[in-house]
């Protein structure tokens, strides 16, 4: 009986969390469509979340491209088809690996940062202070972060796709003797506009999740010394779970 | 608010208020009135809900039952614009200052002005200097970040931020907590000074009896979800209410018997 009660509690708290995040999205849309647009705040957050994530994005993407090329190259060598390395790598990288792995790594970093920042503001009553000074905390704090994350993530995915291509190209040339020009041509030929669209759609959806979950966790940080740490950890777990779930549904939608 | 509320009518009024957090009932049929121009100090033990009272006054928390009225209007029934107008006129000084860490002192002081007015940067800078001067802080601090300020300085900057928009009511949430005795005296003096110079209505939540004695026109004691005592400082010192007497003298009881000596005597002339 205890196990059933515990399971029920988990389900209820999960539904409560989902309702809270949905409620935040609803409030966000309601305040977001009203002027002012908060362009300065959005730009500041894009620098904070997006531009400062460039080094880690470049680093991860080149290794994602290289690792996949090594794995595919090894399999293709058995069939004497190493020249197909560009074709084989392109779809997996653009449709799946780059957007998803960047969301799980760079996106988690962004969301944890948002949750920690807003959580600290909650604990020190700065969020209440925003409201007490006559501003709307959703418009002032959540709106710029969610918009910036939703725009930054697909742009990072575009950059990641280019760098992953270069990583694959390096391995193709140096390890399997596939000429870089040929790798590039076969890589690009394999991709259709829908593949680029799928990559961008995933980047955008994951960015929205990153911003929304980070802000929700930050706003719901409890008081106490451990609260910000707990909130940040829960954010990373939530991002991992919801990115994978969203990935499945977006992939099915493009199937 | 002073313009819209007759001097005999409360500027802030709690009517039959009930409030709970889960199983913890904080208020039950609670009533309280704050009159224009007065300084009302709310005292009471830790965790009784003194800060909750302040947060209800500007709609940061909502009542479960009853009503909180500011200038005769029910805060719970206000839309976003109504609440914005209340927060334009009622300033809140948070316990830890709640200065925005990512902004300079100048940006903190100008925050409410940017939200509520169309003033340009030069006007905001001038106003910020005036506000800092009122809390005896040098203008050189304007470009510093809150992290570089001491606890006392943060409280005074928070005080300066609250007066930047020229409010009619200032709510102080434990303004002297965590400060050394000299800063406690300084903050108490400033509350008196602001009340005198700006003629604001003030509500002060504090545990600190010397500060309460210094700044208050009236004192309200929160005990068991209501205010069993509301009266002048003199009435408080001579109150026969056992909880008031125990609180101001720091008396501890076990099974009804006193287990320590009183820590504070009534002031001369009180």
Summarize the structure.
The complex is a heterodimer of chains A (255) and B (270). Chain A has helices spanning 2-32, 39-50, 54-78, 85-123, 126-132, 137-174, 180-190, 193-219, 227-254.
Largest sheet of chain A: none
The CATH homologous superfamily name of chain B equals P-loop containing nucleotide triphosphate hydrolases
Biggest beta-sheet profile of chain B: 6 strands, mixed
- The DSSP helix count of chain B reads 9
Mean pLDDT of chain A: 95
**Strand ordering within the main sheet of chain B:** 6-7-8-3-9-10
The name of the CATH architecture of chain B is 3-Layer(aba) Sandwich
C-alpha end-to-end distance of chain A: 42 Å
Estimate percent helicity of chain B. Answer: 25-40%
Q: Helix amount of chain A, in percent?
A: over 70%
Q: What value does the average pLDDT of chain B take?
A: 88
Q: What general outline of chain B do the C-alpha atoms trace?
A: globular
Query: What's the count of strands of chain B?
Result: 12
CATH class of chain B: Alpha Beta
Task: Provide the structure class of chain B.
Answer: alpha/beta
Radius of gyration of chain B: 19 Å
Tally of contiguous helical segments of chain A:
9
Multimer state: heterodimer
Kindly give the count of domains of chain B: 1
Number of strands of chain A: 0
Query: How would you classify the helix and strand content of chain A by structural class?
Result: mainly alpha
């Amino acid at each position: 009986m205890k196990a059933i009660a515990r399971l029920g509690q988990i389900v209820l708290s999960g539904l409560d969390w989902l309702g809270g995040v949905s409620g935040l999205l609803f409030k966000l849309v309601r305040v977001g469509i009203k002027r002012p647009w908060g362009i300065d705040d959005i730009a500041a957050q894009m620098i904070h979340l997006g531009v400062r994530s460039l080094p880690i994005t470049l680093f991860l993407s080149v290794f994602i491209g290289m690792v996949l090329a090594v794995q595919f190259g090894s399999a293709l060598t058995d069939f004497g088809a190493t020249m197909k390395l560009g074709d084989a790598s392109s779809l997996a990288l653009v449709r799946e690996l780059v957007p998803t792995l960047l969301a799980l790594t760079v996106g988690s970093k962004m969301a944890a940062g948002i949750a920690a920042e807003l959580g600290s503001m909650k604990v020190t009553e700065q969020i209440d202070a925003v409201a007490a000074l006559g501003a709307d905390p959703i418009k002032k704090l959540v709106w710029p972060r969610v918009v910036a994350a939703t725009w930054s993530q697909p742009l990072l995915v575009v950059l990641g796709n280019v760098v992953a291509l270069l990583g694959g190209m390096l391995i193709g040339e140096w390890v399997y003797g596939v000429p870089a020009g040929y790798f590039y041509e076969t890589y690009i030929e394999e991709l259709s506009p829908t593949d680029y669209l799928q990559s961008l759609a995933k980047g955008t959806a994951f960015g929205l999740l990153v911003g929304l979950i980070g802000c929700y966790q930050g706003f719901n940080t409890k008081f106490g010394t451990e609260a910000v740490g707990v909130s940040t950890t829960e954010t990373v777990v939530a991002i991992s779970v919801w990115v994978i779930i969203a990935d499945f549904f977006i992939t099915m939608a493009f199937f | 608010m002073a313009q819209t509320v007759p001097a005999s009518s409360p500027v802030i009024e709690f009517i039959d208020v009930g409030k709970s957090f889960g199983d913890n009932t904080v208020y039950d049929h609670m009533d309280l009135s704050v009159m224009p121009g007065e300084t009302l100090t709310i005292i009471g033990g830790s965790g009784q809900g003194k800060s909750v009272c302040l947060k209800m006054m500007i709609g940061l928390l909502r009542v479960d039952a009853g009503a909180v009225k500011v200038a005769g209007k029910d805060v719970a029934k206000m839309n976003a614009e109504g609440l914005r107008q209340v927060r334009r006129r009622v300033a809140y000084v948070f316990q830890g200052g709640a200065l925005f860490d990512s902004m300079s002192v100048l940006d903190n002081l100008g925050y409410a002005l940017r939200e509520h007015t169309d003033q340009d940067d030069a006007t905001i800078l001038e106003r910020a200097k005036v506000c800092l001067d009122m809390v005896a802080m040098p203008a050189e601090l304007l470009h510093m970040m809150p992290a570089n300020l001491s606890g006392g300085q943060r409280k005074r900057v928070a005080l300066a931020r609250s007066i930047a928009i020229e409010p009619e009511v200032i709510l102080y949430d434990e303004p002297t907590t965590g400060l050394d005795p000299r800063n406690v005296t300084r903050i108490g003096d400033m509350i008196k000074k602001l009340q005198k110079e700006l003629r604001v209505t003030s509500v002060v939540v504090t545990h600190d009896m010397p500060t309460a004695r210094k700044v208050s026109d009236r004192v309200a004691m929160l005990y068991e979800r209501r205010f069993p005592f509301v009266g002048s400082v003199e009435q408080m010192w001579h109150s026969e209410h056992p909880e008031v007497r125990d609180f101001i003298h720091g008396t501890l009881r076990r099974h009804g018997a006193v287990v320590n000596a009183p820590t504070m005597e009534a002031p001369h002339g009180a």
